[in-house]
Structure formats: C-alpha cells, structure tokens
Design goal:
By secondary structure, this protein is mainly alpha-helical. The protein has 2 helices and no strands. The relative contact order is 0.16.
C-alpha cells in the first residue's frame, strides 16, 4: 500500500515539475518511477487478496469442517 502512496506522490510531483529525481534533476524520470511504483503496489495488493481468498475456508472446496463433538 505504501508503494501506491509514494508512487502517487512521485507521479504528481514529477508531472507538476515541483519534484525531480535527485542527481539527475529529471522530473519526467521521477514521474515514470511513480508509475512503476503504482503498478507494483497494485500487483502486491491483488496478490495478497488472491492468497487470502484461497486460504479462506469458505472459498476452499477441499476444506471440510471438523465434526461436531457430542455433548
């Protein structure tokens, strides 16, 4: 999630020209890095959601609940 936030900051700052990549003084390259960070962050969120959905018992067809214990 932090990748998406930082990517947005880099993208907006680079496109506005108020921020630039240190050492190269290139706002365009900073905006490009922001796009890469956003794409990477979105892929991480999607991967995390997919793994959670696969491990959730309600979505796992192989899951069998334990038998009820007699009282």
């Amino acid at each position: 999630m932090i990748n998406i936030i930082m990517g947005l900051v880099f993208l907006i700052g680079g496109l506005s020209g108020k921020l630039a990549l240190r050492g190269l003084n290139s706002p365009g390259l900073l905006a490009a890095i922001g796009v890469v960070l956003i794409v990477w962050g979105i892929s991480q969120v999607r991967r995390h959601n997919r793994v959670e959905a696969e491990t959730r018992p309600s979505n796992n067809p192989e899951f069998t609940p334990p038998p009820d214990e007699p009282i």
